[in-house]
């Protein structure tokens, strides 16, 4: 929610900015549009996550161990990749 508060504050500052002629640098329509988007985001972030909702990806410990082993294994440079001499 800190991001939403910051976005609201920045939007308020943006709305207060004026050109040297005293004209608002951003139209009221744009400010309203941005405000609606910020409030929609705030509502989405504040909505409770259903308890029965499953995570997007489920992994077993074995799958995680296999992935870690793949990442930790050294990469062979002889697999057809060669350095260019300059």
UniProtKB/TrEMBL annotation:
GO biological process: protein transport; retrograde vesicle-mediated transport, Golgi to endoplasmic reticulum
GO CC terms in record: endoplasmic reticulum membrane; SNARE complex
Keywords linked to the UniProt accession: Endoplasmic reticulum, ER-Golgi transport, Membrane, Protein transport, Transmembrane, Transmembrane helix, Transport
Membrane topology type: Single-pass type IV membrane protein
Recorded GO MF terms: SNAP receptor activity
Main location: endoplasmic reticulum
InterPro entries tied to this protein: Vesicle_transport_protein_Use1
Location of this chain's protein in the cell: Endoplasmic reticulum membrane
Family: Belongs to the USE1 family.
Protein name listed in UniProt: Uncharacterized protein
Organism: Digitaria exilis
Lineage, opening ranks: Eukaryota, Viridiplantae, Streptophyta, Embryophyta, Tracheophyta
């Amino acid at each position: 929610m800190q991001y939403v508060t910051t976005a609201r504050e920045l939007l308020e500052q943006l709305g207060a900015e004026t050109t040297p002629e005293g004209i608002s640098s951003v139209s009221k329509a744009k400010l309203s549009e941005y405000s609606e988007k910020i409030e929609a985001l705030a509502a989405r972030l504040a909505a409770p996550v259903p308890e029965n909702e499953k995570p997007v990806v489920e992994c077993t410990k074995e799958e995680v161990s296999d992935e870690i082993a793949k990442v930790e294994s050294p990469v062979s440079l002889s697999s057809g990749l060669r350095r260019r001499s300059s």
